[in-house]
Specification:
By secondary structure, the protein is mainly α. The chain has helices at 2-20, 22-29, 44-64. Helix 1 (2-20) runs antiparallel to helix 3 and helix 2 (22-29) crosses helix 3 (44-64). The longest helix has 21 residues, at 44-64. It starts with a helix and ends with a helix. The model has no long low-confidence stretch (mean pLDDT 91).
Length: 68
């Protein structure tokens, strides 16, 4: 029970970061791969936000005990 609560909280925190700061995620995960990169691609930001939403839903389900 405690593990699912901790996992739910961590997923919700990660969701908030993905939703609020997709450029920060790009800086950490993608910028180093290309020396000429000036910013995230047109698809990176929406996909990152969608993924954040999915993590948020799973986090809420874990907190409610629906998923274990």
């Amino acid at each position: 029970m405690k593990q699912s609560v901790v996992a739910g909280i961590l997923l919700i925190v990660f969701c908030l970061i993905l939703e609020g700061k997709p450029r920060l995620i790009w800086l950490i995960a993608e910028k180093w791969k290309n020396s000429e990169a000036k910013g995230p691609s047109d698809m990176f930001t929406p996909i990152t936000r969608i993924l954040g939403g999915v993590y948020g839903i799973v986090g809420i389900l874990l907190l409610l005990g629906i998923v274990q």
